[in-house]
Amino acid sequence: MQSLEEFKEVFNPVLNEFVDKKTAEFIKHTTDLFIKDFVTYSKNLITGGGKRIRPYLAYLSYKTFGGGNEDEEMDVFVALELFHNFLLIHDDIIDKSIVRRGQKTIHEYVLEKLSKDDRIGDLKHIANSQAIVIGDLIFSWVLELLIKSKNKSLSYLFNYFFKNVDEVIIGQIIDGDTSTRKRAGLKLIEEKTTLKTAYYSFIRPLQIGAVLANPNYGMEKLFEDFGTKLGIAFQIQDDLLDIIGKPDEIKKTPLLDIEEHRYTFFTNYLQENGTNEQQEYFNSVFGKKLTEPNQKLLRATFEKSGAITYGKKLINENFNKAKDIIRNSNLENDYKQNFIELVVLIEHRQS
User: Fold this and answer.
1) DSSP 8-state code for residue 261
2) Hey, which CATH number is domain 152-351, 1.10.600.10, 1.10.645.10, 3.20.20.80, 2.60.40.10?
3) Are 298 and 255 spatial neighbours (Cβ–Cβ below 8 Å)?
4) How far apart are CA 202 and CA 244, in angstroms?
5) Superfamily for domain range 1-150
C-alpha cells in the first residue's frame, strides 16, 4: 500500500500526460496564439500543485477492499482530480479569488492578458466567461475518462459520482445563498459543510474506490461516518487557515471568506457569543474589502471572542472521532493504520 507521497509520484505523471494530450488536441482547433496561451495556462492549475487527496482516498479504499490492479483504475482516479479542478475554476470566479496554489487564477490571468492587449468591452465579464468555459471543458474530460472505464462496477461508480455532483452543487448553492443573509445559523453552515466538503471530498471518493474493487463491499455507512467527521474537521481547519494563515503558506488570499460575506463556524460563533463591541466591529467589516489594519484587528477579535479556541476544539474532536471510527471498524489492522496515517497527515497540513 502506497503512502500519499508515493501515490503522487505514480499519479502525477499520468495526470500530467493526460492533461497535456487533451490540451494539445483542443488548441489545434484555433490558429490564434492569444487564445492558445490562456487555454494552455489552465494546465497550471491542474499540474502545478494540489494535495491529490480525493484520488488517493479512492486508491486507498480500492486496495482495502481487494483491488488488485490500480493501474487499470487510474483513469477513474484522474477523473476525480479533474472534477476537483473543474470545480476550483468555477469556485475561484464565485469567490473572486485571484490566487490559487500560489499562481494567478485562470480568470485573473485572462483578465490581465486582455487588459495588456488593450481589448474593448467588459473585460472582467469576458475573462470570467472564458474561465467558466475552460472549466466546462475539463468536466467533459472527466466524463470521457469515466465512460471509457472497463470496470464491471461502472454503474455503481456512476451512482456515487452523480450523487457527488448533486451534493457539491447544492452545497455551493447554500454557500452562495447564505452569503446574502444577515444571519445564516449553525444548521445551514453544518449542512453546507457536510455536502460541499464531507461528501464531496471524502465520503464519495472512498465509496467510489471501494466499489471499483467490490460492488458488494458492504461498508457504506463506515465511510459515511468516517468521511463526515473528517470532512467537518477539514473544512473548519480550512476556515481557520483563512483567518490566521499567511498568504505565502496557504497560497491563496487570506480572509477572503470575510470579504465575501461567507459564513463559517467561526463567524457564527462570534455572532452568537462575542461581546456587543466584538459583534459590532465584526458586522461593520463583514462583506467588505479589508485593509491591513482591519485584518489585524479582525484576527484579534476572533481570538478574543473565543471563536479560535472553539474552532480548534471542534477540529480536534472531529479528527479524533474519525480515528476512533476507523479503530473500532472491522477493517484489517494494516488498513486501519493507513487510514489513520492519512488523518494525521491532514491534521498537520498548513495549506
Assistant:
1) T
2) 1.10.600.10
3) yes
4) 25
5) Farnesyl Diphosphate Synthase (1.10.600.10)
- Nearest by Cα to 319 from 254, 227, 251: 227
Q: What is the pLDDT of residues 225-237, one digit of tens each?
A: 999 999 999 999 9
Overall residue count recorded for the chain in this entry: 351
**CA–CA–CA angle 34, 38, 43 (5° rounding):** 145
Q: What is the per-residue pLDDT across 155-200, written as a single tens digit (0 to 9) for each?
A: 999 999 999 999 999 999 999 999 999 999 999 999 999 999 999 9
Task: List the alpha helices (DSSP H) in 65-105.
Answer: 74-95
Instruction: Give the distance from CA 160 to its chain's centroid.
Output: 18
- Are 14 and 79 within 8 A, CB to CB? no
User: Phi, psi at residue 252, to the nearest 5°?
Assistant: -160, 170
Q: Band of the pLDDT at 45, cuts 50, 70, 90? A: confident
